[in-house]
Amino acid sequence: MSVEYLKKASHTSASGESDTRDTVAAMLAEIEAGGEAAALDYARRLDRWEGEAVVSREAIAAAAERLPQQHQGRYPLRLSAGTALRRGPA
User: Fold this and answer.
1) Are 36 and 52 in contact (CB under 8 A)?
2) Chain centroid to CA 5
3) In sequence order, which ranges of 1-90 are alpha helices (DSSP H)?
4) Going by C-beta distance under 8 Å and a sequence separation of 6 or more, which residues neighbour residue 57?
């Protein structure tokens, strides 16, 4: 028995892949050249993020204390030597 399609998508999952790849490459190059300021600019434009790029240990601790009791300690986070926030054992 053959399948008869009533509609068929004109685009596939690979449609626009080249354009997307070019856009991402340009964004990464701009961030590499412009550093944190360029990354923050993208955060503001794309995500409407106006906050800090680097979160202090104190701010992290304060946010953790505001979690409901059943979630506290459930998602341990730690600061690595490079101050990057990573998931992992405390």
Assistant:
1) no
2) 38
3) 17-47, 57-66
4) 79
- Whether residues 45 and 64 share a domain: the answer is no
Show contacts of 10-18: CB within 8 Å, 24+ apart.
none
| For residue 77, pLDDT beyond 70 | no
- Shared domain for 64 and 90, answered yes or no, is yes
Asked if residue 62 and residue 31 are part of one domain, the reply reads: no
Domain containing 64 equals: 55-90
Give the pLDDT confidence of 33-70 residue by residue, as tens digits.
Answer: 999 899 999 999 999 988 877 888 888 888 888 888 88
Query: Is the residue at 10 inside a domain?
Result: no
Over 33-50, what HEC string results?
HHHHHHHHHHHHHHHCCC
